[in-house]
Write the structure tokens for this entry.
Amino acid sequence: MSDDLDDRAGRDPAPAVTRSIRLLELLAEARRPLNLTEIAGGLGLAKSSTANLCLALEAARMIERGAQGYRLGLRTAELGGAFAAQFNQVREFYDICDASPVLAGELVQIAILDGADALYIARHEGSRSLRIGTPLGSRLPAALSATGRAMLSTLTDAEVTALVGRDAVFPPVTQNSTRDLAGLLSRLVEARERGWALDAEESFPGIVGVAVPLEGWAPGDPQLAIGVGIPVAEATPEHVDAVAAALRDVARQLTNPFSAAARRG
């Protein structure tokens, strides 16, 4: 009897769903169309089984087929937008950024803490339309980006250590990147003291990041952060300070007034 229970526990309850999710992940990771042979190889399935999965996902508009192969469909963008829109801060942040004299022209992004990564879910392009920053749906190690550090700064050092690992070694994305836990904790101390996090060309060469954490509106909401990417040529101390002050003001405006009143009471 126990062997039967073990078999059931280890058995995938919905293999078609699992394979479909993995297929979507393959297309997202490839960042280019994949043909049926490539998808079948990535899934470890026969082409006939893979074709059936593709037909079902294509009918649901989760993927679409073109001359070069399959790619993610419009429905995935709709679902991504719906995910971001469920957070009150995201729904309001575009108008608030537009109304800010400092941030109206800046690239402003919102990220969510997903494990040890910062996942970018919203983006305000700004009037200058700078082609910088992280595309929506992309992720960076939270240890390296300003938005990631802003979120990590809300945790204790012990919680950060448990999250990333005591022996963590971070990828050298640039020559300025933080490489280990000690370096990360040092930067988090600075972020907590300032009230905002700084990424001095550690996640992208030529870009200085400034970010502050955003409080959740409801119990169980994930940790968010709002940040700005500034070309290094424009990242004077005065401009960085002005952006940081503007972000802190936006964060205050995006704080749930009822939870803030409860804390004051």
Remarks:
- Confidence is low (pLDDT under 50) at residues 1-9, 258-265.
